[in-house]
Write a structure and sequence with these properties.
- The chain is an all-beta fold and 89 residues long.
- It contains no helices and eight strands.
- The strands form two sheets. The protein has a four-stranded antiparallel beta sheet with strand order 1-8-3-6, with no helix packed on it. Strands 2-7-4-5 form a four-stranded antiparallel beta sheet, with no helix packed on it.
């Protein structure tokens, strides 16, 4: 997180790293903290997922801009990494 008072590590950048662990059949959503100025990069660490109707398998990734929230469905148990970053510096 860019805020030293948040839980987790302070990275001195306007960005957030989020690990998402899900079990097969779970549905979840990822909500951007600053959707008006940020985008998100989602990487499939392990497992199979459907993110906004796009299938991801191990080591697949996608990026999204202009979204406030992304829907995620676990097609198998696994983990995702979501990195929210500013689109302009």
């Amino acid at each position: 997180s860019p805020d030293p008072n948040d839980e987790g590590g302070w990275i001195h950048q306007e960005a957030w790293f989020n690990f998402i662990d899900m079990n097969e059949g779970d549905s979840n959503s990822f909500r951007l903290k600053r959707s008006e100025t940020h985008g998100v990069y989602i990487m499939d660490i392990s497992g199979k997922f459907e993110v906004e109707n796009e299938n991801l398998n191990d080591r697949d990734a996608l990026s999204a801009t202009g979204a406030t929230e992304l829907s995620i469905k676990a097609l198998s148990s696994g983990s995702l990494l979501a990195i929210e970053v500013p689109l302009k510096f």
